[in-house]
């Protein structure tokens, strides 16, 4: 019987701060980074599981250490047993009582669990010869529900309610799968909207986005209200009245500031305001949503677990739920969140961009379409034109839609040369001579 024999971590960082790619009001100089994991076995097939947690530079070494702390829960175990019951495997990590103390179920350890769980799902999908979305969408309602920990959720979503949601979607699965393979999944782009970009660059990239078939773009806001009003005016003049413009404050404001700022932008018809305040402030989000309607409130990329998502939904605090593939504890917890969103009738538009997040979340949205919500109405996946070339099976967008991946796995595997060239601090990209040139 094959067992797990390798648990290999890498600190991979990209110097995106040099061109202000990824810049926003709260994170002005990010270096997009991956705390990266490879899980190997002694099976004859030679397949590996790849996963990662996304960070923006300093602290990536801490995230790598957190992932490494989970190695003893994997090494030496029987591969078939671990992958056969991914619900029990998920609980193995989350229920480690000593590591749990560091959360519980939040922060660096939860993100570490996401890297390990996602790497195991990558391996499971590769062994099945299927892309992850297709593997999940082919599972029975009972198998999917067995992946979910309903502890802390049953006042909002019970196992029986989750089964009913999945069973209701079951009859149309085959037709939606074919539609997905033919048409892909709607995308929107954040590429024009980084806060550090000049007005000229914003206008050029916004115009190009429309020409490329996008029906929604996003601008970062929250630095200076007058600048934001000017930039929104330029964007609206460039894309016209029919293109949705989402805005993203990246947690910048207090509740009252958020309300006033969004009202200043309202004449330019923003589609949503994303992360208007602290991701932990459920009641603050609810107050903002009530005050700024009909502008929608979107949040989720920094929401720490399914329990906070539950409360946001219960409190009527959001119009758009934004899952993140590597913030909560991996695929299993994201399935729980997708089921919660379906129960409350709230559309899911994942957070992406970063390092590899586009590659991962496409699978979750596509699974949601086929097997959970059954619709793409008001659902789009974020797209950012950064760093896809570092992945063996990069995500692709054509005519404003994600091209449905067909390669087996979770699309998480990086090009081997990337792991050495961008290794921090000793990779060639971070060598002293290179750093002096870029300074």
UniProtKB/TrEMBL annotation:
Entry cofactors: Mg(2+)
Ranges where the Mandelate racemase/muconate lactonizing enzyme C-terminal domain occurs: 199-295
SUPFAM superfamilies: Enolase C-terminal domain-like (SSF51604), Enolase N-terminal domain-like (SSF54826)
Record-listed E.C. numbers: 4.2.1.68
Protein name, as recorded: L-fuconate dehydratase
Coiled coil: none
Source taxonomy: Bacteria, Bacillati, Actinomycetota, Actinomycetes, Kineosporiales
InterPro entries (alphabetical): Enolase-like_C_sf, Enolase-like_N, Enolase_C-like, L-fuconate_dehydratase, Mandel_Rmase/mucon_lact_enz_CS, Mandelate_racemase_C, Mandelate_racemase_N_dom, RHMD-like
CDD domains assigned: rTSbeta_L-fuconate_dehydratase (cd03324)
Gene source species: Kineosporia succinea
């Amino acid at each position: 019987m094959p067992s797990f024999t390798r648990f290999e971590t890498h600190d991979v960082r990209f110097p995106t701060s040099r061109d202000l790619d990824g810049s926003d009001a709260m994170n002005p100089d990010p270096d997009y980074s991956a705390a990266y994991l490879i899980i190997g076995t002694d099976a004859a097939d030679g397949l590996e599981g790849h996963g990662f947690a996304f960070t923006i530079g300093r602290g990536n070494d801490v995230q790598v250490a957190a992932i490494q702390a989970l190695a003893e829960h994997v090494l030496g175990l029987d591969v078939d047993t671990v992958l056969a019951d991914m619900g029990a495997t998920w609980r193995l990590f989350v229920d480690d009582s000593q590591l749990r103390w560091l959360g519980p179920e939040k922060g660096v350890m939860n993100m570490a669990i996401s890297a390990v769980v996602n790497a195991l799902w990558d391996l499971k999908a590769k062994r099945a010869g299927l892309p992850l979305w297709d593997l999940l969408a082919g599972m029975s309602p009972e198998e999917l529900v067995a992946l979910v920990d309903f502890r802390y959720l049953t006042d909002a979503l019970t196992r029986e309610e989750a089964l009913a949601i999945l069973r209701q979607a079951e009859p149309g699965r085959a037709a939606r799968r074919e539609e997905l393979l033919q048409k892909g999944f709607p995308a929107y782009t954040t590429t024009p909207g980084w806060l550090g970009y000049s007005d000229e660059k914003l206008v050029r990239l916004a115009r190009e986005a429309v020409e490329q078939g996008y029906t929604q773009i996003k601008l970062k806001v929250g630095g200076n209200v007058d600048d934001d009003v000017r930039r929104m005016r330029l964007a609206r003049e460039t894309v016209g009245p029919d293109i949705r413009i989402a805005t993203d404050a990246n947690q910048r404001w207090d509740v009252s500031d958020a309300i006033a700022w969004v009202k200043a932008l309202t004449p330019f018809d923003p589609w949503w305001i994303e992360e208007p305040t602290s991701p932990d402030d459920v009641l603050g989000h609810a107050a903002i949503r009530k005050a700024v309607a009909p502008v929608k409130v979107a949040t989720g990329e920094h929401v720490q677990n399914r329990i906070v998502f539950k409360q946001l939904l219960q409190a009527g605090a959001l119009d758009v739920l934004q899952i993140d593939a590597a913030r909560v504890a991996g695929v299993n917890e994201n399935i729980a969140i997708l089921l919660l969103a379906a129960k409350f009738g709230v559309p899911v538009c994942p957070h992406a961009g970063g390092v590899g997040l586009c590659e991962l979340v496409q699978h979750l949205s596509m699974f949601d379409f086929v097997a959970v919500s059954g619709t793409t109405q008001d659902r789009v996946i974020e797209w950012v034109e950064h760093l896809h070339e570092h992945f063996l099976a990069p995500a692709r967008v054509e005519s404003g839609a994600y091209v449905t991946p067909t390669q087996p796995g979770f699309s998480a595997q990086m090009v081997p040369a990337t792991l050495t060239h961008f290794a921090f601090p000793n990779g060639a990209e971070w060598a002293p001579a290179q750093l002096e040139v870029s300074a």
